[in-house]
Design brief:
This protein has 243 residues and is α/β, with parallel strands linked by helices. Among the domains are: 100 residues, no CATH class; 26 residues, no CATH class. It contains 6 helices and 10 strands, in the order αααβββββββαββαβα. Strand 7, helix 4 and strand 8 form a beta-alpha-beta unit.
């Protein structure tokens, strides 16, 4: 580990190529930060958080509740549209969203947006990969399954928020113990971050409900039986075990 930076665990040529492509379309960071700072909605955000049993004063950042919009770039006057989502909060959007700055390596790199009607999460610049990225180091970290769960925990631990890539999950290799309360997500992370290495499974402390764990493995066994049956009838055409 000492021969290279932590980011080199996942920043291969493929990642860096597409990161450079994405950067061409991102809103400049200073522009995003200025919009966040100028936005109102602190009192509204405080009320929503407390209504949902989240203490605003426990969070290490200021949340704001704003009107937001999600649009395809083809629908907007932007240069070189390519089918990306564009998220804006200009006071005229049709949905309410909780926004807050995302910090990693001690620097603001994006603004998070939690739509409060469906609890979907997105980021304005689509740059952030983690919430709580600075917590991914040392002896242990709590791996959450959603932005809401992370907020409920006072923004402690981390949650993965990249909707497209899985290689950055390798950042968890820097932690000795990973706590997670969702067996399906924990094992998916184990696969992507550690190559499903049996020895690495010892790093995971899965404290999911016993019934959920049982249902997960029953479902996996059923999928394997179905896959084997289909492959016996149609060799090579089906593989549902890891689907």
């Amino acid at each position: 580990m000492s021969d290279f930076s932590v980011s080199q665990l996942w920043e291969d040529d493929y990642f860096l190529h597409w990161e450079a492509v994405e950067e061409r379309y991102r809103e400049p960071l200073e522009e995003t930060k200025s919009k966040y700072e100028a936005a109102d909605g602190i009192n509204e955000a405080t009320a929503w958080l407390r209504d949902n049993d989240i203490e605003p004063d426990a969070l290490p950042f200021q949340c704001k509740l704003v009107h937001a919009t999600c649009s395809y770039d083809y629908e907007m006057p932007v240069k070189d549209p390519c089918g990306r989502y564009i998220y804006t909060f200009d006071g005229e959007g049709e949905r309410d969203a909780l926004i807050f700055p995302i910090v990693d390596n001690g620097q603001i790199l994006d603004v998070g947006m939690l739509f409060i009607d469906g609890l979907e999460f997105a980021t304005i610049r689509q740059k952030a990969i983690w919430l709580g990225g600075d917590k991914i180091s040392g002896d242990s970290v709590r791996l959450h399954t959603s932005a809401l769960e992370w907020l409920e925990a006072g923004a402690t631990g981390c949650v993965y928020v990249d909707p497209q890539r899985r290689t950055p999950l390798k950042r968890l290799q820097t932690v000795d113990k990973i706590h997670c309360n969702n067996v399906a997500w924990a094992l998916e992370v184990w696969d992507w971050a550690f190559g499903a290495d049996d020895a690495a499974l010892e790093r995971f402390e899965i404290d999911d409900d016993a019934d959920n764990i049982r249902e997960y493995f029953v479902a996996q066994a059923q999928r394997q039986v179905i896959s084997q049956s289909l492959n016996a009838k149609h060799p090579g055409r089906f593989n549902l075990v890891m689907a």
